[in-house]
Every structure is written in C-alpha cells, then in structure tokens.
Amino acid sequence: YVVAPGITKIGNNAFKGCDSLSDFSLSTDITAVGVNAFKGSTKVSAVAANSSVAKAIAASGAENIVLDISSACDISETTLEVGEITSFELQGKDKEYSGLSVKSNAQTTVINGVKFVDCTNIPMEVDSENITLNRVTANTQGLALVMSADTTNVKLNQNVILKSTLGNTVLCKN
Q: Do the bridges between strand 79-82 and strand 43-47 make them parallel or antiparallel, or are there none, so unpaired?
C-alpha cells in the first residue's frame, strides 16, 4: 500500500516509468491522483475514495489495473475510460451504480459484482480480446454491452443479467 501519515495525494507522473516496482496498492486514504501517475508501471490496485480517483486510476497508464469502486460514494454518473493496457479489472462488491459507464480498450477486461442501474449511456463499451463478467447486472434504456474488437472471448460467470427497455441488449462487431 501507499500509506504514510498525511499523504492523501499522488501527483502528476509521480511513478511514471517505475517498472521495477511491480505492484502499487492504494487505500481510500488517497483522495487525489494526478495525470499519468502510474504510466508504464506493471500493476496498480486501488480502492477508490471518490470518482476522481477512480477515473484517474482507470486512465493512469499502468499495464494492469485492479480498481475497487465500492467505497466511492460519488461514483454515480461517472465514465471510467481505460486506455490500451494489458488488463483492467473493475470490482463493485455487488453494489448498485447509477449511471456508471466503462469504456475499456484493455486487452482483457474483467467486471466483478457491478450492478449498472439508471443508465442513459451504454454501461459497458469494451474493445478487448477477452471479457469476463462476474455477477454483473445492467438495466438500460438501450444497449447494455458493446464489444468492438475484431474477435472477443466472452466469459459469463455466476449471475449475469443484461436488460434493455428498447430491445437489443448486446452489440458486437462481427
């Protein structure tokens, strides 16, 4: 963990290129993360204290990201954008998230225990070769999942429920 009394912020480019450090873990004590804070780092695991930390970690540039949003009280109406990295895992601890959406360009995207509710945007837009959904629910007005990679391996584990009030729920490229 990045833990030090009084440390609540990680600045821009703080650990950029620190590939010798294999795993950063951040607790909810961290309330702000700068641009490219972990660019090129091997792995970042974070429990986001708020939506700005969640967005910053998702876009941090680390090659592998595990992001727990269950402690972020202001995550509603948030879009998490993930760049071209190796893997992204979103953990929701089986809570409901109103208006949350995820746009992932990671090679592998895993979404665990997230209930997307009251979605006016597409909750999951994924351009990944591998997608795993574990205990995911999406209630939307339109599409619940868009898969835009040329080929995608999809794993659905435990209860996965995707519903749309307008008909089609999933859209894939081919």
A: unpaired
Cα separation values, 151 from 75, 126, 129, Å: 31, 12, 6
Q: Give the whole-angstrom CA distance, residue 72 versus residue 146.
A: 25
d(CA 138, CA 132): 14
Model confidence over 143-168: pLDDT tens digits?
999 999 999 999 999 999 999 888 78
Over residues 100-111, the pLDDT tens digits come to 999 999 999 999
CB-CB contact of 100 with 122 (8 Å): no
CB 131 within 8 A of CB 154: yes
DSSP-derived pairing of the beta strands 101-104 and 124-126: parallel
User: Are 32 and 10 in contact, with CB atoms under 8 Å apart?
Assistant: yes
Quickly count: other Cβ atoms within 10 Å of residue 111's Cβ. Answer: 25
The position carrying tokens 């794993």 is: 155
Cα–Cα distance for residue pair 47/168, rounded to 1 Å? 33
DSSP letter at 115? E
* Helix (H), strand (E) counts: the chain: 1, 14
Closest of 129, 161, 167 to residue 148, by C-alpha = 129
